[in-house]
Amino acid sequence: MQLPKxxxxxxxxxxxxxxxxxxxxxxECRQRYGDIFALKLQKNSPPLVFVNHPDDLEQILSxxxxxxxxPGDLNDxxxxxxxxxxxxxLSGTEHQRQRQLLMPPLHGxxxxxxxxxxxxxxxxxISQYPQGQSFNVRxxxxxxxxxxxxxxxxxxxxxxxxxKLQQLLGEILENGSSVWLITLLYFPALQRDFGPxxxxxxxxxxxxxxxxxxxxxxxxxREHPDASRTDILSLLMDAKDxxxxxxxxxxxxxELITLLTAGHETTATAIAWxxxxxxxxxxxxxxxxQELDSLGDNPDPTTIYKLPYLSAVCVETLRIYxxxxxxxxxxxxxxxxxxxxxxxxxxxxxxxxxxxxxxEDLYPQPKQFKPERFLERQFSPYEYLPFGGGxxxxxxxxxxxxxxxxxxxxxxxxxxxxxxxxxxxxxxxxGLVTGPDHPIQMVIKSQRQIKSRSLETSxxx
Length: 461
What we know:
18 helices
C-alpha cells in the first residue's frame, strides 16, 4: 500500500502555487500523480490529500462513514468572517443543530415567497442601465443577489440600515476576493498592518461595523416582535431546537452573515458566468430564448424553474467553472485506504470539485460549454457536485438554483444583450472561491420585452 504522492518542491512554493493558480496547479498534479495526490501547505501540518474520482468522493462524503470526521477547525479560514457559530465552521452535533434550524426557511414552500422578490429586484436593477451603455455583468448580478438576500434574510431592501449593510458587505467581499488578503489568511504572521498598507486592519473594521448593524437589527426585533414578518431572521428568531432552545444573538449573527455572504456572492458569480456563456455561444442563446418565449406572458416561477434547457445551461455553468473548488475538508479518524493509498489518522482530505468536473471520462471535451450533456444523461451526486456533497452539502442549494434560473430568465426576456468583445474569460481564485479573471463587459442593444411579463407566485414543484 502506498502513500499519496506529493510534489517535491518546497512548502512555500506549493503554498504560492495554491494561492495564485489553484486550478492549474490541481490539473498539473493530477496529470503528474493521478487521481489522488497531496500538497504540503503548512510546515507544521500534515499534507492535505486531494481526491476527485467519484468512488473516492463517495467514500469521503458518505453520511455514515466512521473513518472520517468533519471538524470545524479545518474550516478556520472561514471563521474570521463567518464566526465560530456558523453552520460552515461548526462540526458534529452543533453543526447538525444549526443545519436543522436553518433548513425550513430555505426550502419547499418558502421558494414561492422569494420568487416575486427575485423578479422585482432583477427587473429594477436591469432597468437602471440604458441602451448602449456597457457594464460589468457581475456588477449587475451582484447587486441583484445582494438585494435579494437582504430582503429574504432581513425583509429589508430600502432604508438607512439596509443600504449601509449592503455597502459594507460589498466592500468586505470585494476586499476578501483579493489574492493578497488570501495570502494573509495562509500566513498568519502577516495578519497585521504595515505602515500605510492597512488591508488587514481595514477588513476588521468593516467587519465590526457590519456586525454592529446586524446586532442592532436583532435587538430591534427582540424589542418589537412582529408575528406577521416572514423573513429568514424572523423565522430563525422563532425557531427552537430539539431541546426547545432558540438561537443566541451570536448564533443568529453568524448564520445571518453566512447567508448574506455565501448566499449572494457565489450566486452572483454563477449568474455572471451563465450570461457570458449564453452570449458567447449564439446557438445556446437562440435555443434558450426559444424556450423562454414559448411560455408566453405571465409564466409562473415553477414553470420557469423546470425548463429543461434553462436548467441544462445553469448546471453546465456550475460544472465547467464551479464557484467552489473543493468540498469541505474531513480528517481521518482511523486508518483507511482511499484511491489505493493508505491514509493515517489525522490526515486531512478534500474532494476537488473542479477536477471532478474536468474529468474526460465523465464529461467528454470538458473545456467546452455543452448544456446538452445534461439532457443526454444524469450524473450521480459524486460525479456532479457544485454545492458539495454529503452532510455538509450547501444548505442554500435550493435557493441558489431558484434565484439563478429566475434572474437569468428575467434578464433575457427584458433586454437584448451582447458581449462588448469576444475575449475568452478564464476562471481564477476570487478569495476562497473562484470567479472570472477579468470583467465580463456587456451592452444593452435594445428592450426585448414587448408585453408585460410578471411572475405569478405558485407552489414549488
